[in-house]
Amino acid sequence: MTLNGKTAVITGSNSGIGLGVARELAKAGADVVLNSFTDTPEDHALAQSIADEFGVKARYISADMSNGEACRALIEQAGVCDILVNNAGIQHVAAIDEFPTDKWDAIIAINMSSAFHTTAAALPKMRAAGWGRVINIASAHGLTASPFKSAYVAAKHGVVGLTKVTALETAEEDITANAICPGYVLTPLVEAQIPDTMEKYGMDRETVIREVLLERQPSKAFATVEQLGGTCVFLASDAAAQMTGTTLSIDGGWTAL
């Protein structure tokens, strides 16, 4: 599956899932635009390292995904956006009646509204090119729920709904929109939580992973960023040209329960 000649914009992509997706798309030949809210030499060096490793064009554009105008400006600054991967997201855990309003607003803005703004800016470019792929990184929590994650669950359900509407509005064009719904993914952020969780519960690493972190993931194995990236490559390929408006669960059987 080659993506030579295509340009992908991946939000929230200087680490974790977003970076894994960007690397796999670049490996398949796509030029990539990395993004986060920071603007450091390390961010730009990361883009250059991808360009050097995979022989593609790669650059970093800073944009605050909590700001709708900044989301749209990211797409305009990218210039070309054949493949849009909406990945940016944050999390906060609290009971509904104790959930801080500012945290709710931030999660809805970054996890859901940003995808609306970037999609709205990208679709005219895709239509002008006669081809496009919108890939939204939702979550198993876009299909099911957990307590104390009201904003995250609401946002991810919203992303799944936005995906379906985008697909219907582009159904007669060579543009598709799909959502990937991961379960727990082994990212640096999750890896950093393991030692503290081991100490909290007095468990060894393997027990913490199986019984705490992956309690709801029947496979008892993390998904990897490479697997998510590979799924994005597939969705951008000709093999998935008639897949649109759907969700792909990469959750080790979580949503089969």
From TrEMBL:
A Gene Ontology biological process noted in the UniProt record is: monocarboxylic acid metabolic process
Q: Which UniProt keywords apply?
A: Oxidoreductase
**A Pfam family matched in the record:** adh_short
Gene3D superfamilies (alphabetical):
NAD(P)-binding Rossmann-like Domain
Q: What is its EC number?
A: 1.1.1.30
Q: Name one GO molecular function term.
A: 3-hydroxybutyrate dehydrogenase activity
Please give the InterPro entries that the UniProt record associates with this protein.
3-OHbutyrate_DH, NAD(P)-bd_dom_sf, Sc_DH/Rdtase_CS, SDR, SDR_fam
What domain of life?
Bacteria
Which family does this protein fall into? Belongs to the short-chain dehydrogenases/reductases (SDR) family.
Q: Indicate what this protein is called per its UniProt record.
A: D-beta-hydroxybutyrate dehydrogenase
Q: Which organism is it from?
A: Pacificibacter marinus
- Which gene holds the coding sequence for this protein? bdhA
